[in-house]
Amino acid sequence: MAPGVARLIASSLSAYTAPRITGGVAMAGWWTWPLAAGLPLLVSRPVFADTPMAYTYGFGAKAYPVVNLLRGLIIISLVVIAVIALLVVVGSLLRRVRPPGGEVGRVPLLPAGKGLGFIYIGTALTTMALFGFAAWTFATLAAVTGPKGNKAALSIHLIGHQWWWEVVYNDAAHPARIFTTANEIHIPTGTEVRVELTSPDVIHSFWVPQLTGKMDLIPGQQNETWFEADRPGTYRGQCTVYCGLQHAHMNLLVVAEPPKQF
Question: Which domains occur in the chain, in start order?
């Protein structure tokens, strides 16, 4: 094998096997990907906020209830899948009838038997689980509808353009503090922020997954959302509705700073 080809293969393999730093966490290689994918379900509040866009992490009063609901749904779904798979395997192994000839026969069909009890129990458990998750979902929606007391300490007007974000800080009590920036939102930690959303051209969608869910910006209409970051860091946001050729580049940053630095 030529030395150049050997070096190329060795460098390609080292890209997968050598440790590297991603988002402040050392990743050992491709075999750690399953661990990295499952880690968000095990850690409720990471020690760092500067992470890539991921809806399984949350920071702030609005994000925590939604993330907890998401993880609860995932865990219960995995438990249900595991139980059903186990019952199928057990049933296929224990309920087979072997005639004297050695071939598997059919189980006699009885008009009534002990199996109906399992159906009743399964139906009852499923019903209770569904009602429980419905109540949990409604409670989560009520918790994230608006900031506490429907009042926010900071108000921002976010305007979506093709293909950038205009950020206007509103302060009716202090007009000198009204100013405009682009593609970057600075907020103090522990402060609830109200965001007014408008668009002069096409439909956009504001999404900072670690702080708040998606909210559309619709021409001729004003929508509102809110969020809060309880830890300093940089949170990445993105327009999630196709708005033209440069849609993929329409991102923004939310920089949360301690109140004294803000």
Answer: 47-98+146-262 (2.60.40.420)
